[in-house]
UniProtKB/TrEMBL annotation, chain A:
Lineage of source species: Bacteria, Bacillati, Actinomycetota, Actinomycetes, Propionibacteriales
Subcellular location: Cell membrane
Gene Ontology cellular component annotations, sorted alphabetically: plasma membrane
Source organism: Solicola gregarius
Keyword DNA repair carried by entry: no
Record's protein name: Branched-chain amino acid ABC transporter permease
Automatic annotation (TrEMBL), chain B:
Localization per record: Cell membrane
Major location category of this protein: membrane
Species for this entry: Solicola gregarius
Chain segments annotated as transmembrane: 6-27, 34-54, 60-82, 94-117, 137-160, 190-211, 266-288
Lineage, top ranks: Bacteria, Bacillati, Actinomycetota, Actinomycetes, Propionibacteriales
Descriptive protein name: Branched-chain amino acid ABC transporter permease
InterPro entries: ABC_transp_permease (IPR001851), BCAA_transport_permease (IPR052157)
Length: 346, 292
């Protein structure tokens, strides 16, 4: 009976979400503020990477411009949170940032949907470079210095409820980490359902054989634009969380490296896998510190050691494509399936 | 009037550099059907090689020649080691690989050569040429830039159009199986294509660096502009690359001179989008039938 119930994807995803939420509470309550800040970083990278993995893995479109959509979400958030007493509640701010990024996703996605392979890569690359530079042009966006983000306090009833459950006072860093992870869980449940729905199936059909998909009555352009827009919306939400976590929104936060970092996270975890996107984001958040420490111990200067982490993640990305194109999650899944087949054969 | 002329002249010099870069992308596209996003950092590395030699006290031209040669070697090595394993796989793999290489070369250069800005010499004067008592925005080095790029373009057209080697390279790109059956050493042709492209890319790196500052990211914006120039001309035609480069250089120079330099990248994006919507194959493409 219970088994039949958990076969329904929606029920399964919601159960997983609840388990995830419980795990988030335990982890955030038992770690230091510094780790909380790092975990908030994992959350916003994970949200953006989740959107990107759906676009690239399920629909086969490569975007190097997701850092630009994060910038759009972050600047929207910064503009809304200029005063200590903002007009919108936090949920509203997150929603507006997502919607603005969605709209920009339509503007870019409609022409991009007609492009293939290297053309779409080049166009989105141009987007990644253009958006932060354009922010410098408008005086209202704070120029090189960027904008400060004033995150308001959470409503008291949430703080009281949190105190009732955990017995700890919630400080600002931890509350932002919570915001990030709740956004991540909501996003992933929506994306996971989308993957298992009719929409997800049409995306996969378009990726695997566009001619066959069109003959089967799928409108190619519409499917591609929708995938692009959903993915841009995720990046906008991620940018919104990022603005709150970093508390400053400046062009220097949205370099081409951010877009390439997201792509690495997605490739590392495995294209098309949400779990993979999250694992990739976590690895790329915690790796720089480890690698930099190793570099300093090996006698490099601080400046040189800081360059080691991009060197490592670049090399790892290349190695994954050359040796295990399915990424971490995909390779593991393949391994398990082979073992299951072998044991079934005996 | 004077500002207009100077903006146009500056745009042509700039366009020549983009054109060189677009030529390099175009060469790789013609020989392997891959767009090499790591073209810029590769050129950055070879420029640093030249800079190290010049700082050691060798003449500019020794550095220039060695940089071009190291570009040739680097291109061949990258093709054999990195690109060969993904031959015939989905093109997304090759794109991600070249992007990974982009990040790797960047950080490697910062570790080996340092991240600080270093000045790079120029073989010719950087003062504007005097015309009737006023100096215009065309420098002797600018003239050298334009001439060098035009020469490379002519050589490439000759290579692809009038030599056996060029024909073999084109055949390897379009029908590797058939070419192999006809006795073409396809693998060698692919390596040669990458090597030549990296050489042309190195040239554009040297031309951009001449008389200005070099640091690990100095070529980054050129990745985008070179790509836009290549697409403007259609990725298949060397002449198109040069025309696309000059057109783009002029447009961006006017945007920068009359509107604001912050909007240059956005204008490049707008130009790219408009061209791709109107003529997906570029301005100089043969119209090819696409099924969907």
């Amino acid at each position: 009976m219970i088994r039949r119930f958990t076969r329904v994807p929606l029920v399964r995803h919601l159960l997983l979400a609840l388990v995830g939420l419980a795990a988030v509470v335990v982890v955030l309550e038992s770690t230091s503020p510094f780790r909380n800040a790092q975990l908030a970083n994992v959350a916003y990278l994970g949200i953006a990477a989740g959107g990107l993995t759906v676009l690239t893995g399920l629909n086969g479109q490569l975007s190097l411009g997701h850092g630009a959509f994060m910038a759009i979400g972050a600047y929207t958030t910064a503009l809304l949170l200029q005063d200590a007493d903002p007009a919108l509640p936090l949920v509203g701010v997150l929603a507006v940032a997502t919607v603005v990024a969605l709209v920009c996703g339509v503007v870019v996605g409609v022409p991009a949907a007609r492009l293939h392979g290297p053309y779409i890569a080049g166009a989105t690359l141009a987007l990644a470079i253009a958006i932060p530079s354009t922010a410098l042009f408008f005086d209202d966006l704070g120029g090189e210095q960027g904008l400060n983000v004033l995150v308001p306090d959470l409503p008291t009833w949430i703080l009281d409820a949190a105190y009732f459950v955990t017995g700890n006072e919630m400080d600002r860093t931890r509350s932002i980490a919570y915001i990030g992870w709740v956004c991540l869980i909501v996003t992933y449940v929506l994306l996971a359902n989308l993957q298992r729905s009719r929409v997800g199936r049409t995306w996969r059909a378009v990726r695997d054989d566009d001619v066959a998909a069109e003959i089967a009555g799928i409108h190619l352009g519409r499917a591609r634009v929708l995938a692009f827009v959903v993915s841009a919306g995720c990046a906008g939400l991620a940018g919104s969380v990022m603005a709150m976590a970093v508390r400053i929104t400046a062009p220097s936060g949205f370099t081409l490296n951010l877009s390439l970092l997201l792509l690495s996270a997605v490739v590392l975890g495995g294209l098309g896998s949400l779990a993979g996107a999250l694992i990739g984001s976590a690895l790329l958040t915690f790796l720089p510190q480890v690698v930099t420490d190793v570099g300093v111990d090996a006698g490099l200067t601080d400046v040189q050691a800081a360059q080691l982490s991009p060197l490592v993640y670049g090399l790892v990305t290349m190695a994954v494509i050359l040796l295990a194109p399915a990424g971490l999650v995909g390779s593991l899944r393949g391994l398990l399936q082979r073992r299951r087949l072998a044991s079934a054969g005996n | 009037m004077q500002q207009f002329v100077n903006t146009a002249l500056g745009g042509i010099t700039l366009g020549a550099v983009y054109a060189a870069f677009a030529l390099a992308l175009n060469l790789i596209w013609r020989s392997t059907r891959i767009v090499n996003f790591a073209q810029a950092p590769m050129a950055m590395i070879t420029t640093y090689v030249a800079l190290v030699l010049i700082d050691e006290g060798y003449s500019y031209w020794v550095g220039f020649a060695v940089a071009l040669l190291s570009g040739l070697v680097l291109g061949a090595v990258v093709e054999r080691v990195v690109i060969r394993p993904v031959e015939g796989k989905p093109d997304i793999n090759a794109i991600i690989l070249t992007l990974g290489l982009f990040v790797v070369l960047h950080s490697a250069a910062a570790i080996v050569f340092g991240s600080r800005f270093q000045s790079f010499p120029a073989p010719f004067g950087l003062r504007g040429i005097e015309v009737g008592g006023t100096s215009i925005a065309l420098t002797p080095f600018g003239v050298f830039t334009v001439v060098a790029v035009a020469t490379v373009m002519v050589l490439l057209v000759l290579l692809f159009r009038y030599t056996d080697l060029g024909l073999k390279m084109r055949a390897s790109a379009f029908g590797p199986e058939v070419a192999r059956l006809l006795g073409v050493r396809v693998g060698r042709m692919l390596t040669l294509g990458w090597a030549l492209a990296a050489l042309v890319g190195s040239l554009s790196g040297l031309l951009i660096a001449g008389g200005s500052l070099v640091h690990p990211a100095y070529m980054d914006s050129v990745v985008v502009y070179g790509f836009v120039a290549a697409v403007l001309g259609g990725l298949d035609s060397p002449v198109g690359s040069v025309v696309g480069g000059v057109l783009l250089g002029l447009s961006l120079s006017f945007v920068s001179g009359y509107v604001g330099s912050e909007l240059v990248p956005l204008s490049a994006l707008a130009i790219l989008m408009v061209v791709l919507l109107l003529r997906p194959g570029g301005l100089f493409s043969h119209v090819a039938e696409r099924r969907v």
